[in-house]
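Exercise (ungraded).
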Amino acid sequence: MLNKTCKIYFSFFSFLSFNLFLISLFLIISEKSLIIEFYLLNLSNFTVNFLIFIDWMSTLFMSFVLFISSMVIFYSSEYMKDEMYISRFIYLIILFVISMMMMILSPNLVSILLGWDGLGLISYILVIYYQNFKSFNAGLLTALTNRIGDVALLMSISLFLEYGSWNFSSFLEFYNLKENMGLTLIFIMIAAFTKSAQIPFSSWLPAAMAAPTPVSSLVHSSTLVTAGVYLLIRFSTGFSENTMKVILIFSLLTMFMSGLGANFEFDLKKIIALSTLSQLGMMISTLALGSYDLAFFHLLIHALFKALLFMCAGSIIHNFNNCQDIRFMGGVSKLMPLTSVYFNICNLSLCGLPFLSGFYSKDLIIESFSMLNMNMYVYIIFYLSMGLTVCYSFRLLMYTFFMDFNFISLNSIGDKSEVMLKSMGILISLVIFSGTILSWLIFPIPMFIYLPFKMKILILWLIFFGIWIGCETSKFGLSYELLSLKNYNLSSFNSNMWNLPLISLSMNLYPLSVGKKLYTSFDQGWLEYYGSQKLLESFTYSSKFFQLLSKNHLKIYCLISVVWFFFFFFVDT
Amino acid sequence: MANLPTGLISHTRKVQSLYKKALRSLENWYDRREVYRYYAVLMRKRFDDNACITDMRVAKELISKGEQELRSTAHWHPRKFPDSPGGVAYGREVPLPDWVLDYWHPLEKAQYPEYFARREQRKKEFVKLWEKQYGPSSGTPH
C-alpha cells in the first residue's frame, strides 16, 4: 500500500510538470519570455520587489525537475517503506524542490541566494538522513563545501551593489561591454563550482552518496548539482574570455579526473556519482566554449538517465541487503532482468549509443567541439574523457551484470518491487525518446557540421577502445597480473580523486582551527577580559566611587577643600 | 579500539594474525573466488616454507617484513559487509537501548499500564537474581 503523502505529492508534481512542459512549448514557439514583478514592501521611495522570470529554459527545466521528483517520490514509497519517518523524508524532498523552483525562477541574486541556501541546507539534512558516522562525516563535508559557494554568492551580491541592482539579467550584457565585471563574476564562478562539484571542490559529491538512494537520484544527479551549471548559463553573457578559459580548464580537469577515478572505484553509487561529476565537467566545458544551449540540452537529458541509473542502482542495493560493493555482485542480469535492462539502457545512453537520448546531446557537443580551433591539450583531455566514460560504464556492466555471481548463497534477489519498477518504467520511456523530442524543440534548425573523416571517426575509435579497456579491466584470470596492484601508487592516487578529499579536508580544517583559536584566545580571551568584563568592572568601580562622593560625608568635604587649597596655591604661584 | 594489545602476544598468534590479514587483503584485490583461491594457495605456500624456522631473530624479521608488505599493498577500498564496522550501512539503524523506556513520562507510561507493571516486576526480579549471584549491591548509583 502506498503512503498517502507519497501519493498526493506524486500526482501533484506530475500534474504540475506536464502543465509546465506545455507552457515551455508555448514559450519556445512564440519566442516570448515573461517577467512578473511583485512589490513585497513599499515605504515612500524604498521598494522591495520580488521578480519571477519565466522563459522556455526555466519552465522546461522546472518541468523536468518536477517530473523526476514525482517519480522519485513514487519510488521512495516502496524503497523507504520500512522507515519510521517516511513523511519527514517526503517533506524534505518537497522543500528541496521548492528551493530549486526559487532558484530557477529568479533573475534576482538575493532570491537566488535564498533558493541556493535552501538547496545547501536541505541537501545536508538529506545526506545525514541515515544517522551513522559515515553520513555525518559526508554531511559535514557537503555542508562546509557548499558554504564556500554561499559565501561567494554573498560576496557577489555585495559587489553587485556597485551596479545599482541585483536584477542581473537586465543589465549583465550591457555592463560587460562597458566595464570589467571580473571579480563579481569570479565569485559567481566559485559558487557554481562548489554546487557543481568542480575541481577543487569535487570531493563532496562522492561522499554525499551516504544519503538514501532516492536522494542521490534526485539531488545528487539531476537537480542540486545542475544548479551550478544553470547559474553559469544564466550568467554566461557576462563572463570574459579569460574567465571562460579558467572555467574550461577546471571543468576539463574535473571530467578527466572523475572519469579516471570511476575506473578504480568499487562502490556502485560512487561510480555513478563520479560519472555525474564527469558529465557535469562536460556540461561546463561546453558552456565555457560558448554553446550554452547545448550545455542545457545535455543537462536535461543527463538528469533523466542519471536519475534512472541511480534508481536502478537503488533497486539492486535493496536486493543485495544494502551492499554497494560491486565485487560482491555479478550475474545480476539473470536475477533481475528488467532492472538490468533499464540500467543497461541508461548506461548505453550515457555512452552515447545512437538513437538513445544521450546520443543526441553528446554527439552534437563533440562534433561542434571538434569544429573549434582549440589547443591540443583541450582536445586530448576531452576525447580521453569520452573514452573513459565508456570504459567505466562497461567495467561496471561487466562487474555487476555479466560476471559470475559473487554474493552469499542465501539470498532473495529478484525483480519483486512493483512500485519501484513502475516508476523506473515511466522514466525509461523518456530516457529513450527525450533526446529526439528535445533536439526537435531546442534546435529546430539542424546544426551544420563539417569535419574531416578522420576527426569524425576519432570519437568512434575512442569509444571502441573504451569498451575494450573496460571489459579487460573487469576480467580476471589465473595468469592475469593485477596492474592496479603493480602500479599501486598511481592507482591509489587515481582512486582517491587525485587526493582531493585530503585537500578539501585541510581546506576546511585550516579555517576551522584558526577560527577555534580566534574564538578561544580573542573572543573569549582578550576581548572578554578587556571588553565586556573590564567594562563591567570599571563601571562598577567608578559608580561605587561616585556613590561615595554623593553621600555628603564630612571627610569628603574636607578632602575637597584640601584639594582646592592646593590647586589655588599652585595656580597662584 | 576493541583490540588494544593488553597482554603479551605469542609468536604463533602473530603469524596467524598476519596470515589472516594477508588473506583478507588478497580478497580485496582478487574478487573472483577461483582466482582468489589460487593466490591464497600461493600465500599459504609462502607461510609454509618458513614454518620450520626456529631462529627467533629470523622469524621476527620475517614477520616485520610481512607486515610491511601488507601495509604497502593495503587496498584503498577494502571489501566490507554493509552491516559490519566500516561498512556502508553500519550503524544505520540504531536499536534504542532498553533504559529509554525508564525515561518515559508517567502520562506516556500510563497508556501501557500492563506492560510497565510487568516491567517493574521483572526489574525487581532481575536485581534479586543479580544480587544472589554477585552479592548485595553497594547501593551507590553509577
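Further reading is listed at the end of the chapter. For now, observe: The CA atoms of residues 27 and 33 of chain B lie 8 Å apart. Chain B has a mean pLDDT of 90.
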